[in-house]
Amino acid sequence: MTILPPQCIACIHYNSDDVVKFSCKAFPNRIPDEILEGEHDHSKPFKGDGGIRFEPIKVLKQTKVSK
Q1: SS3 of residue 51 by DSSP
Q2: Range(s) of the domain holding residue 12
Q3: Residue 39 lies inside a defined structural domain of this protein
Q4: Could you tell me which residues come within 8 angstroms of residue 38 by beta carbon, excluding any fewer than 6 positions away?
Q5: If you average pLDDT over residues 54-63, what whole number do you get?
Q6: Cβ of 46: how many Cβ atoms within 10 Å?
Q7: Closest by Cα among 59, 58, 44, 48 to 24
Q8: Digit-coded pLDDT (tens) for 31-49
């Protein structure tokens, strides 16, 4: 069983529709085990990533609207 590290889940490039082979834009066939298992911080280069690295999903801050 593979448990995705928070880095993959929180990345804009992660393919959340593919829960079988764990893919992303950098690794369309399968994210390497070193990244999946948290042994490599993918904000740093990894062989074969084509320059596509971890980019956090931007969360919009909710603000109150006055009436």
Answers
A1: coil
A2: 1-55
A3: yes
A4: 5, 7
A5: 81
A6: 19
A7: 48
A8: 999 998 889 999 999 999 9
